[in-house]
Design goal:
There is one protein chain. The protein is an all-alpha fold and about 300 residues long. Helices cover about 80% and strands about 0% of the residues. It has 16 helices and no strands. Helix 9 crosses helix 16.
C-alpha cells in the first residue's frame, strides 16, 4: 500500500475510474475465493445449521457494542459525521434509489453465494484451488490500488499527525466493545466468561479465531468462533454503507474490526474518504496484533 501511495503521488494522472475498477474486481475476487473455500468444507453447512444461532449472537452483539462505543468516543474526540457521507455520496437522481445507483452490496453478496456454490461442485472446486492458493496476491494488488487512491489525496499524512494518540481511540473502542458484547453473549447463552470473551476477541479474524479456540476449548467453541467472526466480516459489506450514512465514518471501521486493513478496506473507502481509509489500516494492524494477545489473556 505504501508503494501504491508513492505511485499515486508521483503519477497523479493515473485514471481514477480504472483504479476504482481494479479495487472492485479484486474485492469481488477475494469474496468469491472466500465463498469457494467455505463451499469446499464438507461440514460447513452442518456447523452453520447446528451452531448458527449462537454464532449469529456472538457476531451481532460484539459488532453493535463496538459500533456504539466507537461512535460515542469519536463524536466526543474526533471530527467526522453525516455531512461527510452526503458530500462523498450525493443523493441519487430522481426516480433512482441509492441501492440502484451503487449496487456494491449486492455484488458482494452475489460473489459470496457464487463462490460457495462453485466450491460445492467438485469439478469446479479443483479448478478454483489455485485461486484460493494465490488469493494473497490479489490482496497485494488490492492494497497497491488502495494506496494509489490514498496517494492521490494531498495532506492526509499531515492531517493524521494532528490526531497523535487519538488515532488509538477507534481500535480501543472496538476491542472494549467486542469483549463487552462477548461477555453479554456469555450471560445469555450460559457460556463461561473466558470462553465468551475469547470468541468475540477474534475481532473478525475468523481463520485465526477458529483454529486457536479449537485447540484451546474444543471444536464446538472453535466452530462458533469461526462462524461468528466470519459473519462479522461478511456483514461488514452490508452494514458499512448504512453506518456511513446514519452514523459516522469511524463507525464503519468498528463494524469491520480487524478486517478493516484488507478485505473490507475498499468498502470503507468507497463510502468514506482517504483519511478514514488510513485510519482503517492503522486500526486493522492494531486489532490484528492484539487478537492473539487477547486469546492469551482472556482464555
Amino acid at each position: 500500500m505504501i508503494l501504491g501511495a508513492l505511485a499515486g503521488r508521483l503519477f497523479p494522472a493515473i485514471p481514477k475510474k480504472k483504479n476504482d475498477f481494479v479495487q472492485l474486481s479484486c474485492t469481488l475476487l477475494l469474496i468469491f475465493s472466500m465463498g469457494a473455500s467455505l463451499g469446499q468444507q464438507d461440514d460447513f453447512f452442518h456447523k452453520l445449521g447446528e451452531l448458527g444461532v449462537q454464532s449469529f449472537l456472538f457476531f451481532l452483539l460484539p459488532a453493535i457494542c463496538s459500533a456504539a462505543i466507537v461512535y460515542f468516543l469519536t463524536r466526543c474526540f474526533l471530527p467526522g459525521g453525516k455531512a461527510e457521507y452526503e458530500e462523498l455520496n450525493p443523493p441519487a437522481e430522481e426516480g433512482k434509489t441509492a441501492s440502484v445507483r451503487d449496487p456494491m452490496m449486492f455484488y458482494a453478496i452475489a460473489a459470496l453465494l457464487l463462490g460457495i456454490g462453485c466450491g460445492m461442485v467438485s469439478v469446479l472446486s479443483s479448478v478454483l484451488t489455485p485461486l484460493a492458493a494465490y488469493s494473497e496476491w490479489i490482496l497485494y494488488l488490492l492494497m497497491f490500488s488502495v494506496g494509489i487512491s490514498i496517494g492521490k489525496q494531498k495532506g492526509i499524512l499531515a492531517k493524521l499527525l494532528q490526531f497523535n494518540v487519538k488515532i488509538l481511540i477507534v481500535p480501543l473502542g472496538i476491542i472494549v466493545g467486542s469483549l463487552g458484547g462477548g461477555a453479554v453473549c456469555g450471560l445469555i447463552l450460559n457460556y463461561p466468561l473466558h470462553e465468551a470473551i475469547s470468541i468475540s476477541g477474534g475481532l473478525g479474524w475468523y481463520s485465526l479465531a477458529g483454529v486457536t479456540l479449537s485447540n484451546l476449548a474444543g471444536s464446538s467453541v472453535g466452530s462458533i468462533a469461526f462462524l461468528s467472526n466470519l459473519m462479522r466480516e461478511i456483514a461488514s459489506f452490508i452494514f458499512i454503507p448504512f453506518a456511513a450514512k446514519h452514523f459516522n465514518a469511524y463507525t464503519c471501521i468498528a463494524i469491520a474490526g480487524a478486517t478493516s486493513e484488507d478485505t473490507t478496506l475498499p468498502m470503507i473507502m468507497r463510502y468514506t474518504d482517504a483519511e478514514t481509509a488510513v485510519f482503517s489500516v492503522v486500526n486493522g494492524v492494531i486489532c490484528s496484533t492484539y487478537v492473539p494477545i487477547l486469546f492469551s489473556i482472556c482464555y
